[in-house]
Amino acid sequence: MNRIVHYYIKWAVGKTFHELLFNEVVIDKSKSALLIGNHFSFWDGLILYCVNEKLLKKKLHVMILEETARKERFLRYVGAFSVKKDSKSILQSLDYAAELLADPANLVLMFPQGRLYANFVTNIKFEKGIMRIIEKAAGNFQLIFASTFIQYFKHKKPTATVYLKSEPENYADKSINKLQEAYQRHYEASKLLQTEIDI
Fold first, then answer.
1. What phi, psi does 47 have (nearest 5°)?
2. Closest Cα partner for 69 from 77, 100, 4?
3. CB count, 10 Å around CB of 199?
4. Which pTM was predicted?
5. Taking CA 103 as the corner, what is the angle to CA 100 and CA 109, rounded to the nearest 5 degrees?
6. What is the model's pLDDT at position 167?
7. Residues 102 and 137: beta-carbon distance below 8 Å
């Protein structure tokens, strides 16, 4: 069943988008990866699924809201696990994500904004759960930032562009504000590059 869903995602992304563009980053094969992305559409996770398949090449796990898991049941076949906000079980989900990062073969995808925001929102705000994962994982992972933007340009279908950055720090001994500020810098630099694209 996993292979069917795998090919379905690749087909759906290929059919929907004119092109999927991303820059390369050096991947540390001896460590797991924590991939943090902006959250603006249904396509976010599927786009990054394809980036992982082409570049990162790790076993993807993504935390999604319980209501999303109920509506999009196929996501469980590609490593999705659910979290119920404002409940005691959220701590179990966060700890599970941290445990996944103990295996170098794994990649955990997180959208710390917690809900959808416009693609060109100015300020990125993180919910605090991301820090529990980082602290529990004790720095045994490679932290990667991803900023994704979708624009049509001159084509009938949109182009999805992902800007990746491997962070030298893992922020295990820092505050959520420091992590958020670092991601904000990456997001702003990415947005500037995106607005300077000349077709």
1. -65, -45
2. 77
3. 8
4. 0.89
5. 45
6. 95
7. yes
| Amino acid letter, residue 127 | E
Dihedrals phi, psi of 130, to nearest 5 degrees: -60, -35
pLDDT of residue 85: 64
Q: Which two tokens stand for residue 12?
A: 């759906």
User: Residue 32: which residues within 8 A CB-CB, separation 6 or more?
Assistant: 58, 100, 101, 102, 103, 104, 105, 106, 107, 108, 137, 140, 141, 142
pLDDT tens-digit profile of 122-161?
888 888 889 999 999 987 899 999 999 999 888 899 999 9
Half-sphere exposure of 144 (CA within 13 A, CB side): 27
Q: Which residue has the tokens 């379905």?
A: 8
The whole-number pLDDT of residue 162 equals: 97
Tokens encoding 119? 């693609």
Give the span between the Cα atoms of 162 and 25, in whole angstroms.
12
Q: pLDDT: is 68 or 40 the higher one?
A: 40
* Structure-token pair, residue 156: 């009938």
Q: Phi first, then psi: what are they for 187, rounded to 5°?
A: -65, -45
Q: 72: Cβ–Cβ under 8 A, 6 or more apart, which residues?
A: 64
